[in-house]
Amino acid sequence: MKSDLDHLLKENQADAIWITGPAQHNPPMVYMTGGGHMTQADVIKRVDEKAILCHAPMERDEAKRTGLETLNYSKYPLKERLKLAKGDRLIAHALLYKHIFTEIGLTEGKVLVYGKTDAGKLFSMLNKLQTLLPGLVFHGDMEDSVLLQAMATKEPEELERIREMGKVVMAVVSRVENFLASQTISNETLLKSNQTPLTIGDVKNHINLWLAEYGLENPEDTIFAIGRDSGVPHSSGTLNDPITLGQTIVFDIFPCEKGGGYFYDFTRTWCLGYASQEAQSLYNQVKSVYQQVVSELEIGKNAAHFQNRTCELFEGLGHATIRQDPAIEAGYVHSLGHGVGLNIHEKPWFSRKDDPSNELVPGSVFTVEPGLYYPEKGMGVRLEDTYFVTPQGQFEKFVDYPMNLVLPVN
Amino acid sequence: MKSDLDHLLKENQADAIWITGPAQHNPPMVYMTGGGHMTQADVIKRVDEKAILCHAPMERDEAKRTGLETLNYSKYPLKERLKLAKGDRLIAHALLYKHIFTEIGLTEGKVLVYGKTDAGKLFSMLNKLQTLLPGLVFHGDMEDSVLLQAMATKEPEELERIREMGKVVMAVVSRVENFLASQTISNETLLKSNQTPLTIGDVKNHINLWLAEYGLENPEDTIFAIGRDSGVPHSSGTLNDPITLGQTIVFDIFPCEKGGGYFYDFTRTWCLGYASQEAQSLYNQVKSVYQQVVSELEIGKNAAHFQNRTCELFEGLGHATIRQDPAIEAGYVHSLGHGVGLNIHEKPWFSRKDDPSNELVPGSVFTVEPGLYYPEKGMGVRLEDTYFVTPQGQFEKFVDYPMNLVLPVN
Asked: Which CATH class name applies to A153-407?
């Protein structure tokens, strides 16, 4: 939670966080400002002090709406900075921040830096700024960052927004299911009204349209992968592929609120019309492992415990797993899940058994998504729902949706 | 053009470019790979050599589709790197790149770094990598970067894609115009079928839906700002505001191809039903300056020349301009335009009079968007089209759309 930031900063011997970049599609900035239409902004928050938002003059109204204290870049005109920098734009850019940090009285200590932005440019600018403000140490931390630790425990208002996302995703998934079931079929292939094959691309276009109807964005695309593609977990599907009966279809959908807000993540695997015995058997195994792991979820346990347990269960069923070989491409080849929030992937991580900051605690939001992949057999199965932990420590699925492999068709 | 990269690198005494981050919504990566569904990738291109794409094992199919030479991260398992790094994840991360650069034989020289990604983390990792590969110098350049210079001159295929975007944008703008004109009106306010006021938010929802129908994304939102908001160039509009007659509405729309591809940028200013004399007079002035500047566009001239000329013209009409005071909030307060491509804002820049890389040349794509803003009077006017320079040096608007201030209503 945001209120954890101060003690997390202290625990990490840091004196401030600094978030830079645009206000949208930049999770750290959305977290601190709520988003809004700012092409470039900076939020600086010192330990035990309020966050300050630095903004461009043209974006002053958007800046005001955040409710944060504001500081207008126009106080430090580029022209003057360029003069001081003898025309060097990198130095002129660093001078902006020298002025800002000096103005707010932060010239000593450790500053943690966040933001999804032009990373190469920031690298060179920060190294220059380091020489201009030798009392500051800038640091970008890794996947267990202070900010991601705060973001990992959601407040009730955040949980409600994610649940709303889940409801809309279920509505869209249901429309996809009905849409597929209502197509005409010839030669085991779904046909459009013009009698040409319905393609993966057609289905994705419908999904995007339906998501837009509900006001959502789909920045990461949708996975709608059939046959061999379904056997490669991150294959998003081949747009021109026709949709045929009896093939496994992995349908993984993960849109977010408009402007880069909260995500929801959900997967079902379907076979249209019928399934081979082998596909049905894989499906039953994935479903049983899913149910077993969910039944064992326990507060205070490290997420990695459940990844390990999933490997154990799949190995017991005779499948190779990623804990045996990280480069594996057949069997159980990925992680059981990941945290979900303003990032589609965030803490808790399911691969850090030694790190207590990945324990499941009240406010945790994460996916459970076991899967089995056999690309050479042309099939894959994954089942995924997004879960959270209530303030009372109960594990709950945000929204429910049936788990059936075979979708009846016309 | 991409084919300029080698000589631009040489001119800048650089030995390679390195692009990192996701494959979508990351303009440098989209430029080099064409996009695709990769959550993390690296493209390294040495002078006079082919680009190499490094990718995650699960994303091997997406990587193959780019047609680039590929290198799988799985060659350097995290487990082994963590062991070497004694558990330090930052060092383990830097070791991945040490291995990659060593494998491709790039251990000496200057490497330009690009990518829209987690910038703080990259900062710390690069400084660590610097110590592991002391023969390399990493550098992130500014707004006149080598990559942006290459991207600034579009190939015919890129121009065609931008023109297609323009056609779709015109179709959506026309639908918005018809939609507004067909609402019922009471008390000078547009009403929905349920007799409640039509809001800015309603209009934006329709815009997003129509854009999705054409398969576009709208990651940067739309500006649909009325009254005082229209007098603040970057105000995107207040969602709950009703839409009333006689107020200036600045409608600035700038969607991109799915996955973060090419943008188009377009603005019209409308008053529904009628316009005040003052608004009409501002409109006529902006339109005349627009036409004058377009008539003067000339190949080989620096874009900044036309910003200067626009200030001159507006000053001649009695308005304050940004060249007189960079912090100005009333009058002509922004730049005449900007380049457009995989970034909504890119080269040519209109503010660098001394930099020949901002000259208008064949392949340049840029907006022309003069405007006048009087927030205290509750009005603003901006008119914008996207232009390009043909191989023969002619200036052309991609697509046309009428310029009329007053939209007749029911």
From this structure: alpha beta
